[in-house]
Amino acid sequence: MNAPLPTRREETAAQRWGRFSPISTGEEYVASLRNRGVCVYLFGEKIAEPVDHPIIRPSINALQATYDLAIADPELATAHSPLVNARVNRFLHIVESPQDLVLKNRMQRRMGQLTGTCFQRCAGLDTISVLHSITWDIDQKHGTPYHQRYLDFMREAQCNNVIIGAGMTDPKGDRSKRPHEQADPDLFLHVTARNDRGLYVTGAKAHMTGGLNSHWICIMPTMNMTAADRDYAVVGMVPGDAEGLTYIYGRQSCDTRALEAGDIDKGNARYGGQETLVVFDNVFIPWEHVLLDGEYEFAQPMVARLTAYHRASYVCKTGLGDVMVGAAAAIAEYNGADAASHIKDKLVEMTHLNETIYSSAIASSHEAQQLASGIYMNDEMLANVCKHNVTRFPYEISRLAQDLAGGLMVTLPSQADFEQEETGPMLRKYFQGRPDIPVESRTRILRLIENMTLGRNAVGYLTESLHGAGSPQAQRIQILRGMELERKKGYAQELAGIEIIATDAAAR
Ligand code: SF4
């Protein structure tokens, strides 16, 4: 292995934490992102201050809402942490019971209702849950110091109330090859050098949710690893402004509307999601922030546990579904069509689909089991069923919302035309629905439905629902593994009066 050029400051954990001040409010969170000097590219240009960029800011606002909710509804969005003996934001809380997971799901639904988008903080939350048990398990086998390092990190994270992003998905290159077999070794993030103070990593994390808006990025393996992939089996905490990081901002459908004047055509002017490609060029991590290094056999359980937590976190989409049901009901009312039985039936169908997602998530949390480290993990099968529902139902909910919205949703003239001296009066005359409803209210709801089904937040409501936390086939594989056909065949054979042979009985 070639040693990297020694061009990075090799800060200790204390030096890295020394740059933080405890965050209490949403406004302080936004302030904490300023003047970090992060290297960000968008539309081919380096962005001087991402916080003030009109395309980026809505994604920051969505994360700000996680701080605001903690103040507005502390019962829901904070929890007592024994680690620091104080209430902490629930997005930083280590789950101690099934009830913690249930409350997490309720908070996620509420956040979806408030923002109508991906609020970006759950993958980090689920990562810290996984790391509690994984670091414990590695230490039991190898005598490593990872669990104590994890607790030390979490103590600081909770006290400073920071955002931790999950850097999981490697670009992966040629899917038929393992990490060490790739033509370009950087297609999976890997260790390039180690010294007395820490290690260096190079590679990238793709479509990383909220990466730029996070204070810390937890890098971790994206799949199971073999002995030959040992240098790719690494978990560590990297500050979002570390030397050697470059963020390249992902485009979203209709994103340039954020650059236009006026707020109506944006659909949801306040909130948006964020995905970036994060490139790591010999980024330094001090040993105190390394939580796995070479224990490749733990990559697989780590990924499996993260998917169990995170697939139930997709309950977030029920909050967005609530917004969609509300938008569909509102546009039906504004059109004067809300009394029609087929309209009511479509709203019932949308609600049924949305609540079906919720029921699988919340059941998964209620059925949580305790792990060896003492924390709880939600039921894997039900979490996969939840996420599989999420790959389908938001599409049908969106189809029904578009059905109720009518074609005007995609033929509506711009806000500028509504405000123009000559065309404005014509548009207000011909786009009047129910006479007691302002035309502007009708256009705003139509734009919101457009935003969530075709525009920027369709990324969060639809495509992220399909591919986030694993594409549909990933859940089907897990469901296949857990469906226990032999046991179920036994139930059938028993009732049918079929003699059960010994090997079948042993399987039960
Ligand atoms: Fe949270 Fe949902 Fe976004 Fe994942 S997709 S980070 S669960 S809001």
**Low confidence ranges:** none
The share of residues in helices is 40-55%
- Rg from alpha-carbon coordinates: 24 Å
Give the termini separation.
Answer: 50 Å
Major sheet, described briefly? 6 strands, mixed
Give average pLDDT, whole number: 95
What does this structure look like?
The protein has 508 residues and is an alpha+beta fold. 48% of the residues lie in helices and 14% in strands. The chain has helices at 13-18, 26-32, 57-72, 74-77, 98-115, 122-142, 146-160, 299-313, 316-334, 341-366, 380-390, 393-405, 408-411, 415-419, 423-430, 439-453, 458-467, 472-482, 485-496, 502-507; strands spanning 40-42, 45-46, 78-81, 86-89, 164-167, 190-194, 198-209, 216-219, 234-239, 245-249, 275-286, 290-293, 369-370, 376-377. A 6-stranded mixed sheet has the order 2-1-10-11-7-6, with no helix packed on it. The chain has a 4-stranded mixed sheet with strand order 5-8-9-12. The chain has a two-stranded antiparallel sheet with strand order 3-4. Strand 6 (190-194) and strand 7 form a beta hairpin. The mean pLDDT is 95. Iron/sulfur cluster is lined by residues 118-120, 122-123, 209, 313-314, 316, 464, 468.
Topology, please?
Layout (H helix, E strand, L loop, with lengths): L12 H6 L7 H7 L7 E3 L2 E2 L10 H16 L1 H4 E4 L4 E4 L8 H18 L6 H21 L3 H15 L3 E4 L22 E5 L3 E12 L6 E4 L14 E6 L5 E5 L25 E12 L3 E4 L5 H15 L2 H19 L6 H26 L2 E2 L5 E2 L2 H11 L2 H13 L2 H4 L3 H5 L3 H8 L8 H15 L4 H10 L4 H11 L2 H12 L5 H6 L1
Parallel strand pairs: 1-10, 5-8
Antiparallel strand pairs: 1-2, 3-4, 6-7, 7-11, 8-9, 9-12, 10-11, 13-14
